[in-house]
Amino acid sequence: MSYPTHEEICANHKLEPIVVKHSELKRASETSMYRSECPSCKDGVLLVCREQPSLRLAEEDYCIRCGRRFLYSDINEMRNIEGIV
Ligand SMILES: [Zn+2]
Fold first, then answer.
1. Tens of pLDDT, residues 39-66
2. Which residues face 18 on adjacent strands?
3. Which helix or strand (DSSP H or E) is residue 10 part of?
4. Are strands 69-72 and 18-20 parallel, antiparallel or unpaired?
5. Does a structural domain hold residue 83?
């Protein structure tokens, strides 16, 4: 598995976010309900960020490997599950 270069990560990060449904992504961990496989590079992981200081789930996320950004179209359902809307 080859890692993207710093330039590739920066280029990916500048692209428009891809709109995805978190519920339809493949979970990357059996112990986390949020961690997903990156649908763009397949080897990276989306962790789901939290907004400060509210700690509610952030709509925008990014892959820790390829830098590609994503928007969760079902963020409100995720927030509802946590009760922090
Ligand atoms: Zn990725």
1. 999 999 999 999 999 999 999 999 999 9
2. 70
3. helix 6-14
4. parallel
5. no
Count of structural domains within the chain = 1
Say how far apart CA 83 and CA 85 lie, in whole Å: 6
- Alpha carbons within 13 angstroms on the beta-carbon side of residue 72 total 26
Tokens of 12: 């990916």
pLDDT tens string 26-40: 999 889 999 999 999
Determine the structural domain holding residue 18 and report its residue range.
Answer: 6-77
- CA of 69 relative to ligand 1 center, distance in Å: 9
User: Residue 50 C-alpha to ligand 1 middle, in angstroms?
Assistant: 19
Query: What is the identity of the amino acid at 41?
Result: C
Whole-structure pTM value: 0.91
Report how far ligand 1's centroid is from the alpha carbon of 11 (Å): 12
